[in-house]
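Saturday, quiet lab. Running sequence design on the structure tokens for the scaffold JK sent over.
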């Protein structure tokens, strides 16, 4: 069937930010109506019941096949002035009549602006088989799994790819640009429901050099390419330009030493921020530990109990210049209890020893405790020379530079030198937008949001094992209790067939379903074996089988009629065992410890009787108490071999399973030890 031939001219509408992530456009509802009218099949009339009785005058013309629509709907988009062409899919038929809304990047590629005229043509594109992308972002090496990133981004946002397009791929809180260099089998392809092989080309060296010299990219690129590696105890010096970053990687951390890490920076010039994270390239908007104050020395203590630190051996340190150029010296060491940044109990020496002591009074101005005999002299001198801040009660010298530059934040309780004001307001009281749309009140709050609840935070999915955004929190109690993120909730809803029960099970419920099978397995009863310790057959359920032997072993001991006190049975068993001890069974494969053939040492009649007495006594007691007796009676070769294999399998399984289940596994797998071991581990309850 042929594809519908359709084209139309529309005007470009205003930008819609919701379209910028992909290639999908908004069309007016009339376009959908045109498609339905052109491809709809007219209704057929009901058959006439009298038609077979009426003569046919003329045969109606055969029904002409209607054209079809491509799936998905894809369009060629043409700028009639420049003849530039691009392609895209359709998101909705919800725009105003005569208006088409395009993504911003598509307007740029077609050299269009709002109000211009475009020509749309319905076009079926071939399925893409291969694509080559060239990175246009210097930090694209941060992406660990390109396959997962492109798969999720293209599947969610794109129907088509056109050679020469620049894709803006969002990964976590960042965006990376890639140029579509080559496509197969055509220069424009459909990427929906197809397997697309992708090659990634790195950023050209000259582009890296150009980016490193750009005012807005120098610090990031330089930090990426020149990250310095240091070890604990090493001192490193560096410089950084204003607004840029300098990165260090602290490797080979030994968690067995000290009370965590102490990271210190001495500022020689400028004003810097110290940022630390377990992820590469920490920034003001994305870090775990930081020091964002204006001080000549920055010091951060990373505690050993912090979950973000306890399981890693490398840390990444970022130095940001708020004012520059800045020079600094970085040093790292293992923290000790005596370090000022390590929490510990305050000693009594931190309290004035003269406080509230007899003979001492407190100065109303500076708060010092002085002898009562000199309090008047002290207060007069203190009032003339010192001034106390009413907010923080800090005592300063009147007319001093410190007093003139003393400053308090109007929003929080921060105080210090007036030179700290601009940085404090910028870092702690300026609203900051997250890529997910959340508005936070400061850099520290934004960094906390990005590493905890941000939907764009990257996680390693426990089901597909791809690095993907975690999404919004799940809404059902099951997923919340399981600690799943939105993507894991969606990804874990896929089903697989249980190989034991054949039921379709969601992936996220596999562990719980397996525990159900384990509980059922543990409730299984052990199949009763013959009480003959050399036999592996199941015990027979005959009414007079008090010895709990199998039918084969019990046959010679069957006693007809009444047997008071099992005397006849015991005599028959005694004769059988006595014969084994003195003569043996004569079978070379015998492994019965109470058989002369197996042991190779036939006993005399009297000695055999001495050996037999405790055996029969034990048997009589077992019969009297109703417990399971233990007998050693010679059996055939096949049974002996199976018993030997069962004992080998029991030993191989470290005695975790009863020998009865080892026997059953050998029966199920036809005495194949490897397969029997697998069967026992999958079906038998543990001891």
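Result came back. Writing it out in full:
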């Amino acid at each position: 069937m042929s594809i519908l031939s359709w084209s139309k001219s529309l005007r470009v509408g205003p930008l819609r930010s919701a379209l910028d992530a992909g290639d999908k456009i908004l069309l007016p509802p009339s376009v959908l109506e045109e498609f339905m009218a052109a491809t709809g099949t007219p209704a057929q009339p009901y058959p006439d019941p009298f038609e077979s009785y009426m003569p046919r005058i003329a045969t109606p013309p055969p029904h002409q096949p209607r054209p079809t629509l491509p799936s998905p709907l894809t369009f060629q988009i043409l700028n009639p002035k420049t003849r530039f062409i691009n392609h895209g899919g359709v998101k909705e038929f919800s725009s105003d009549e005569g208006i088409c809304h395009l993504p911003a990047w598509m307007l740029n590629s077609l050299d269009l602006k709002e109000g211009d005229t475009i020509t749309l043509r319905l076009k079926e594109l071939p399925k893409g088989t291969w694509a080559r992308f060239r990175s246009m972002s210097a930090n694209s090496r941060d992406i660990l799994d390109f396959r997962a990133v492109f798969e999720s981004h293209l599947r969610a946002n794109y129907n088509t790819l056109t050679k020469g397009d620049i894709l803006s791929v969002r990964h976590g809180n960042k965006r990376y640009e890639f140029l579509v260099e080559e496509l197969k089998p055509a220069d424009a392809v459909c990427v929906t429901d197809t397997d697309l092989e992708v090659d990634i080309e790195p950023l050209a060296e000259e582009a890296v050099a150009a980016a490193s010299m750009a005012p807005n990219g120098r610090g990031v690129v330089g930090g990426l390419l020149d990250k310095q590696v240091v070890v604990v105890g090493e001192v490193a010096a560096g410089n950084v330009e204003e607004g840029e970053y300098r990165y260090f990687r602290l490797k080979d951390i030994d968690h067995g030493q000290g009370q965590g890490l102490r990271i210190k920076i001495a500022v020689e010039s400028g004003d810097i921020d110290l940022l630390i994270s377990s992820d590469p390239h920490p920034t003001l908007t994305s870090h775990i530990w930081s020091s964002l104050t204006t001080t000549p020395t920055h010091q951060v203590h990373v505690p050993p109990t912090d979950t973000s630190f306890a399981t890693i051996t490398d840390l990444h340190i970022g130095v940001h210049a708020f004012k520059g150029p800045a020079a600094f010296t970085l040093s790292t060491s293992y923290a000790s209890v005596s370090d000022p940044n390590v929490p510990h109990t305050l000693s009594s020496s931190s309290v004035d020893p003269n406080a509230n002591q007899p003979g001492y009074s407190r100065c109303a101005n500076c708060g010092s405790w002085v002898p009562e005999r000199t309090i008047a002299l002290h207060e007069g001198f203190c009032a003339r020379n010192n001034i106390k801040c009413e907010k923080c009660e800090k005592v300063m010298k009147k007319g001093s530079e410190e007093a003139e530059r003393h400053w308090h934040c109007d929003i929080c309780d921060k105080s210090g030198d007036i030179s700290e004001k601009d940085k404090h307001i910028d870092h702690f009281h300026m609203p900051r937008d997250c890529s997910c749309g959340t508005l936070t009140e400061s850099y520290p709050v934004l960094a906390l949001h990005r590493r905890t609840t941000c939907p764009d935070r990257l996680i390693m999915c426990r089901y597909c094992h791809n690095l993907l955004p975690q999404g919004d929190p799940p809404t059902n109690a099951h997923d919340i209790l399981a600690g799943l993120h939105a993507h894991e909730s969606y990804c874990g809803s896929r089903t697989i067939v249980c190989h034991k029960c054949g039921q379709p099970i969601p992936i996220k419920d596999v562990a719980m379903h397996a525990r159900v099978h384990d509980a059922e397995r543990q409730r299984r009863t052990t199949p009763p074996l013959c009480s003959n310790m050399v036999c592996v057959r199941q015990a027979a359920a005959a009414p007079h089988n008090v010895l709990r032997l199998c039918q084969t072993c019990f046959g010679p001991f069957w006693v007809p009629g009444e047997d008071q006190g099992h005397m006849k049975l015991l005599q028959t068993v005694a004769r059988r065992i006595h014969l084994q001890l003195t003569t043996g069974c004569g079978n070379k494969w015998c492994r019965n410890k109470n058989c002369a053939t197996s042991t190779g040492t036939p006993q005399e009649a009297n000695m055999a009787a001495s050996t037999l007495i405790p055996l029969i006594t034990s048997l009589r007691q077992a019969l009297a108490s109703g417990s399971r007796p233990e007998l050693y009676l010679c059996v055939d070769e096949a049974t002996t071999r199976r018993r030997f294999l069962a004992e080998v399998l029991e030993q191989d399984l470290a005695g975790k399973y009863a020998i009865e289940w080892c026997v059953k596994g050998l029966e199920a797998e036809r005495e194949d030890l490897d397969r029997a071991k697998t069967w026992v581990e999958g079906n038998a309850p543990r001891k």
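Notes for JK: Residues 353-386 form one domain. The radius of gyration is 43 Å. Ask whether to fix the surface positions before the next round.
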